[in-house]
């Protein structure tokens, strides 16, 4: 039997609990503002962390936020 590693979802709704339950119900301008803020905070966290696992998670979150902004604009 083979075990395949599934690729994680790149959707912000699947990664971010707050975005899924609260922010996604707000107007588009608020969602874009949240994503921009999330990108800023994630970049800052990414520059300060040393843990490779945490870096991988942060990069995934960053990519999801960037993808969400592209969809909204």
List its traits.
mainly alpha; 73 residues; globular
Task: Give your account of this protein's structure.
With 73 residues, the chain is mainly alpha-helical. It is 70% helix and 0% strand. The protein has four helices and no strands. Helix 3 (28-48) runs antiparallel to helix 4. The radius of gyration is 14 Å and the shape is globular. The protein starts with 11 loop residues before the first helix and ends with a helix.
Task: Give a short summary of the structure.
The protein has helices spanning 12-15, 17-21, 28-48, 52-72. By secondary structure, it is an all-alpha fold.
User: pLDDT under 50 segments (min length 5)?
Assistant: none
Which shape, going by the Cα principal axes?
globular
What is the terminal separation in angstroms?
44 Å
Number of helices in the DSSP assignment: 4
Beta-strand level of the residues, as a percent range? Answer: under 5%
- The quaternary organization reads as single chain
State the secondary-structure class.
mainly alpha
Share of helical residues: 55-70%
Give a short account of the largest sheet: none
DSSP E strands, number: 0
Mean pLDDT: 91
What value does the Rg take, in angstroms?
A: 14 Å
Element string (H = helix, E = strand): HHHH
């Amino acid at each position: 039997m083979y075990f395949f590693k599934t690729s994680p979802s790149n959707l912000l709704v699947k990664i971010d609990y707050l975005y899924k339950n609260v922010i996604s119900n707000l107007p588009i301008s608020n969602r874009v503002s949240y994503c921009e803020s999330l990108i800023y905070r994630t970049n800052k966290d990414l520059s300060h962390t040393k843990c490779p696992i945490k870096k991988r998670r942060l990069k995934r979150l960053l990519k999801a936020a960037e993808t969400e902004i592209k969809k909204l604009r």
